[in-house]
Design a protein that fits this description.
The chain is α/β, with parallel strands linked by helices. The protein has twelve helices and nine strands.
């Protein structure tokens, strides 16, 4: 198996690009990721994505994070592969490269609320984060169920990961392979470690020109006063070419977390941030990421059927239990634009554009010096 990139190689890759900034992207007319990738309604949804990706470029973004849906590939292989390529091309048309995610541990338990994913018309509930009344974004107290828990389906996932990575391993339209989203989440902890390891093994066998990573997301926990990594996160940190992480906490917590992550001496990208309700704001976070040259991709872009401007369902549970005093219910949670493509807050967009312009000027000066 090929080795993890050296720190020198990782920094060269990172420094040869302008500051990476963008969002986790799904078109506003998608109820979920099946809608994003399936044949039904795709032409219309790609038109929506085209408009919104153009807006992303005008905002100053140059990167998106996308999560393909396994069952679409599994049940409509050729159609999925063609649509996936068109999606990459649409983003690239506006100078936007894509970070691709495969695995995902944000899953509800297999209880009375769980339903198997199916192609076709997609249901959504109004007023709920993610468009689902019952989702992984609430407190179940049970372990989340992943279809990869079934060995034969896990074997198909390996084929999926290998095929896409082999096809695009030298394609400039893809900037990063983000192999697994929030491994160990949904009370899965180390249950997902074998799956994560297999994804990394497949990726190293493919040996792409783009870096391989997976996000650290659990705020690194606390044992006494010491930060620590969970077992699955320790594996990820040791086997990633660059460090990616998620943090929806406030400015102060982000400073502590960044300081901790700097110990790995590798480029850092925050692949999920922006939680106004939890005091994680554009005004504070975006200038910080610029100043420290930490790549950043906020969650959400244009408010739509997926409704990520709404709170996580667990926030309502906390409030109802008398523990929601820290949550600001007066503001949107995620998303930067309204359904009419006007900014949620024009001042946020002006600030983003200002720092994107500064970053590109910084990069141009650095390139001229070289």
């Amino acid at each position: 198996m090929n080795d993890v990139w050296s720190k020198e190689k990782a920094w060269k890759w990172y420094d040869d690009r302008t500051w990476m900034r963008g969002c986790n992207f799904m078109g506003s007319d998608c109820a979920n990721r099946i809608d994003q990738w399936q044949a039904l309604g795709f032409e219309k949804r790609l038109e929506t994505a085209d408009r919104e990706l153009k807006l992303a470029a005008e905002t100053g973004f140059n990167t998106i994070r996308i999560i393909p849906e396994f069952i679409v590939w599994d049940q409509d292989h050729d159609g999925f592969m063609e649509r996936f390529d068109r999606y990459l091309a649409t983003a690239w048309k506006y100078g936007i490269s894509s970070m691709v995610v495969f695995g995902n541990d944000c899953m509800p338990p297999k209880n009375e609320f769980w339903k198997p994913l199916q192609l076709g018309e997609q249901h959504y509930d109004w007023g709920y984060h993610g468009g689902r009344k019952f989702s992984q974004h609430q407190h179940f107290g049970e372990m989340g169920y992943h279809i990869m828990d079934e060995p034969e389906i896990m074997a198909r996932h390996e084929v999926w990961v290998r095929e896409i990575m082999e096809k695009y391993k030298d394609d400039p339209r893809i900037c990063v392979w983000d192999l697994y989203n929030e491994a160990g989440n949904s009370n899965r902890e180390s249950v997902s470690l074998p799956n994560v390891k297999r994804f990394f093994e497949v990726a190293r066998e493919v040996n792409p020109s783009q870096p391989i990573t997976s996000c650290l997301w659990k705020h690194l926990g606390h044992k006494g006063q010491e930060n620590y990594l969970t077992e699955v996160e320790q594996y990820i940190a040791e086997n990633s070419d660059i460090i990616t992480y998620h943090c929806y906490s406030d400015y102060n917590e982000n400073i502590k977390l960044i300081r901790y992550l700097q110990q790995f001496e590798r480029p850092i990208i925050n692949t999920e941030w922006l939680a106004r309700m939890l005091h994680n704001t554009v005004e504070e976070m975006f200038p910080l990421f610029y100043l420290m040259k930490i790549g950043c991709l906020n969650w959400g872009f244009v408010a739509g059927l997926y409704q990520t401007y709404e709170p996580w369902n667990g926030m309502w549970q906390s409030y109802e239990a008398g523990k929601g005093e820290h949550i600001d219910f007066k503001v949107w949670f995620h998303d930067l634009y309204r359904p009419n493509l006007k900014p949620y807050d024009p001042h946020e967009i002006e600030l983003i554009q200002q720092y994107c312009k500064l970053a590109d000027e910084d990069f141009a000066r650095g390139q001229m010096k070289k």
